[in-house]
Design brief:
This protein is an alpha/beta fold. It has eleven helices and seven strands. It has one domain: 3-Layer(aba) Sandwich (Rossmann fold), CATH 3.40.50. The longest helix is centred in the middle third of the chain and has 17 residues. Bound molecules: D-malate.
């Protein structure tokens, strides 16, 4: 039995608006750092095209101060495999944003047979640089010392693009609230998992399923040039840039994000 908490949005079909229509397929969306599955709420509407949408909260996230912690991407990937097995889901379109992409790479290594299609949003395959690892160590000390609000102060200006911060200040506060729903040890565990993650560049050559790479044009953490390099490394993949969006492209420009994801799902389903 899986212990992972998750959001489960049943498939709906236009011809059967009130009912639980037969699913065209399952879409699994994995959140980034230091967030929770709630960042994917603007994508729940994709259930209206017949897709069941499953959104895990990675181990400990959205559980407050008492939340558990993981220490590797394989921990997170293992939890998701257990969840899919407990739901009897043999195949799905699986995607992740940023750290969710790192988890997705671990899933691709450990359980490629579960993938019907792949979405990689605002993420990168490379491991942390030595400087990056030092930055993670500093943030682990900060979160243990000052709590999640210090991480929110550090991350918010980088997570959200200039357009969002200028035109949608309410969204900045929504993302802060999501960060604050996580405990210090859950955040420290995710930082440990990120700083120890392996280089996933060799994994790219093994990808055999339809793949969509998405990136916010104003993404300051994984900028568009990195998305172009990622797409170039995956045979047959497509790249879509999202205007007026930063690192949280699905949340900052949900209509544009959903349009490209919907078109991709039509191709895969
Ligand atoms: C994320 O959005 O998940 C993180 O910014 C990724 C990272 O720090 O490498």
């Amino acid at each position: 039995m899986s212990r992972l908490r998750f959001l489960d949005i049943p498939a709906r079909l236009e011809s059967d608006p009130g009912g639980r229509g037969r699913a065209v397929g399952t879409l699994v969306l994995i959140h980034g750092f230091p967030l929770s599955g709630h960042i994917w709420e603007p994508q729940f509407v994709l259930s209206e095209n017949g897709w069941r949408v499953i959104v895990p909260h990675l181990r400990g996230f959205d559980e407050g101060a008492a939340g558990r912690s993981a220490t590797s991407m394989d921990d997170y990937a293992g939890d998701i495999i257990d969840l899919l097995d407990s739901l009897h889901i043999e195949q799905a379109v699986i995607g992740g944003l940023s750290m969710g992409g790192y988890v997705t790479f671990a899933l691709l290594r450990n359980a490629p047979a579960y993938f019907q299609g792949l979405l990689l949003a605002d993420t990168r395959p490379q491991a942390d640089s030595p400087e990056g690892r030092q930055g993670r160590e500093r943030m682990i000390a900060t979160v243990r010392d000052k709590g999640p609000s210090a991480v929110a102060d550090d991350m918010l200006p980088k997570l959200l693009g200039d357009s969002t911060r200028r035109e949608h200040p309410g969204l900045v506060e929504e993302v802060r609230a999501i960060i604050m729903s996580n405990g210090a040890e859950t955040i420290a565990g995710a930082l440990t998992a990120m700083m120890n993650r392996p280089d996933s560049t060799p994994t790219l050559r093994q990808i055999r399923v339809p793949t969509l790479v998405v990136c916010g044009e104003e993404d300051a953490i994984t900028p568009p040039a990195e998305a172009e390099a990622l797409q170039a490394g995956i045979a047959g993949s497509a790249l879509e840039m999202i205007p007026k969006a930063g690192h949280l492209s699905n949340l900052e420009a949900p209509d544009a994000f959903n349009r490209v994801l919907e078109a991709f799902l039509r191709r895969v389903g």
